[in-house]
Design a protein that fits this description.
By secondary structure, this protein is an alpha+beta fold. It folds into 2 domains: 30 residues; 110 residues, CD59 (Ribbon), CATH 2.10.60.10. Helices cover 40% and strands 28% of the residues. It is built from 5 helices and 5 strands; from the N terminus they run H-E-H-E-E-E-H-H-E-H. A 5-stranded antiparallel β-sheet has the order 2-1-4-3-5. The chain starts with 5 loop residues before the first helix and ends with a helix.
């Protein structure tokens, strides 16, 4: 019969307790914490005003960041924002399909709307949109390369 010494048993008990408490937090509707700010000046201005807020629940909400620009003639509006959003909006946000942007576009504004969601505590603390501005071309090039590589491997296997 093997006897565990006290430190190992204590560590194992602590691990069990952490696991139980983690499960309890999930089942009791734990709150997601997100960075929140808004600015009409710049991303840095928004970042300087950041506070941490609790979203209503981890299951329904995500953290987000958006950068929107509306221009019509001499009128130029830039909005930088972070906070909580319902998860159901995240797919549309990732495509830049933000209600205010759609509405402004219908009013004749030229719009540039970018947004992204994340799903962990304070995951929007840093700039989620950096490096995400014009990567569509790179993603397309990588997709084409993967497709051509698959075609090449198929041809090699046939011969």
């Amino acid at each position: 019969m093997v006897h565990k010494d006290k430190p190992q048993q204590t560590e194992q008990n602590a691990n069990y307790l952490i696991m139980i408490l983690s499960c309890f937090a999930v089942y009791t509707g734990a709150q997601l914490q997100c960075s929140e700010c808004q600015s009409l000046v710049s991303y840095d201005d928004c970042q300087n005003k950041t506070t941490v807020v609790n979203c209503s629940s981890v299951n329904d909400h995500a953290c987000f960041q958006q950068k929107v620009k509306y221009e019509k003639g001499a009128e130029k509006i830039h909005v930088f924002q972070k906070g909580c959003v319902q998860k159901s909006f995240c797919e549309d946000y990732s495509k830049g399909e933000i209600n205010e942007c759609i509405s402004r576009k219908e009013q004749g504004y030229e719009v540039d709307c970018r947004a992204m969601c994340c799903h962990e505590d304070e995951c929007n603390m840093k700039d989620l949109l950096v490096g995400n501005e014009d990567n569509k071309g790179s993603a397309f090039a990588i997709s084409v390369m993967i497709l051509l590589s698959g075609l090449l491997l198929t041809l090699v296997n046939i011969n």
